[in-house]
Amino acid sequence: MTKNMNVLDWTRVVAEAALARKARNVVVLEVGELTSFADAFVIATGTSDRHTRAVADAVVECAKANGSVPLGVEGYQDAEWVLIDLNDVIVHVFQDEARSHYDLERLWADAPSTTYHDETDDGPSESSPAAERTAP
After folding, report:
1. 99 pLDDT exceeds 90?
2. For the domain 7-117, what is the CATH code?
3. Please, what is the average pLDDT of the chain?
C-alpha cells in the first residue's frame, strides 16, 4: 500500500488483483471498527488448489508492486484456505467448501461490506470491476 492510499482504496486494488486471476465472490469486509488487528478483510474464492494459489500469487505480486511486502502467507501448500497478511488488510482466498465451512461473512456480519464482480463473463475487462456496497 502506498502512503497516499487509504485502506478502502488498497482493498479495491487487492480485489482487482484477485479478479484479474478470475477469483469468484470477492468481498471486502470493513472490520476496523470491530477489531484491533485489521482494518479490512478481502475474501475471495478459487475453483481449485491451483486456482487458489494463482489468486494468492496475484495478491502477493500486487502488494509487492505497490510497496507492501506481506507479513506472512499461510496455507499456500494445501490451498484450501490461503491467508495473506498485508498488515491492515488480511486477504483470505478459499476454495468453495472451506469458505462455506468457515463462513467469515456470517462471523463478521456486523461489518460493512463491498462485493466486487467482473462486469464481463467473456474475458478480461479493460474497466474496473463493478462494486456493490452494503451496510450491516
Report:
1. yes
2. 3.30.460.10
3. 89
